[in-house]
Specification:
Elements (H helix, E strand, L loop, with lengths): L6 E5 L2 E5 L6 E5 L4 E5 L2 E6 L3 E5 L4 E3 L12 E7 L5 E6 L2 E5 L7 E2 L1 H9 L13 E6 L5 E6 L2 E5 L7 E2 L8 E6 L7 E5 L2
Antiparallel strand pairs: 1-2, 2-3, 4-5, 5-6, 6-7, 8-9, 9-10, 10-11, 12-13, 13-14, 14-15, 16-17
Length: about 190
């Protein structure tokens, strides 16, 4: 088994892997704007190239069941959960999860439901619909940032959601966990 080393850099031209002291190597061609890494797994994605996984040997494209996301859906964010689950944030807003390293997928239907009932949903500039822009894992549950609907938290694996964005611009562009404090999250917005 090979070990993945180096620095991963997402660019408009693709995913670059840089091992210090060596020249960068393009591993995926096409715009990459979201990357995550945990243990022996790495993820990378872009709206036009889809989602890719590295499990220690090579990059392979993740295949999605067409019934899991709306027609024409695009991957907007990738995350690896605490137990190795793969989360894909989609446009139009949907959240897909694989608990078997991408072999099968489930859709967290609560995300689509909350958008049907949310009164102030906006479509972000440059997007065709609101989309899942970030997935983070605070001390309890999961928080999802939706570009066009703000941040939402769930403590029951996505069955129900509560707004977690009082005062936050509804156009959430990205979200991150604090590396040491499970009670802190970071977000970028349009304001």
């Amino acid at each position: 088994a090979s070990i993945m080393l180096g620095i991963l850099i997402g660019t408009p031209d693709g995913l670059l892997e840089l091992i210090p002291g060596d020249t960068p190597h393009r591993r995926i061609t096409g715009s990459i704007d979201t990357i995550d890494y945990r243990g022996d797994m790495a993820l990378a994605a872009g709206p036009e190239v889809g989602a890719w996984v590295h499990l220690g040997k090579a990059w392979t494209r993740l295949e999605l069941d067409a019934t899991m996301a709306p027609a024409g859906a695009r991957v907007r964010t990738v995350r690896i959960g605490r137990s190795g689950e793969i989360y894909l944030g989609m446009e139009p807003a949907a959240l897909l999860v694989s608990r078997d390293r991408g072999a099968t997928w489930i859709s967290i239907e609560g995300v689509r439901s909350l958008l049907r009932h949310e009164r102030s949903v906006k479509t972000p500039a440059g997007a065709s619909a609101p989309y899942v822009a970030g997935v983070v894992f605070p001390d309890e549950g999961v928080v999802t940032g939706i570009a066009g609907a703000g941040a939402w938290g769930s403590r029951d694996v996505g069955q129900t959601w509560m707004r977690r964005a009082d005062g936050l611009d509804p156009i959430v562009r990205r979200m991150w966990d604090h590396p040491e404090r499970g009670d802190r999250l970071y977000a970028t917005t349009d304001s």
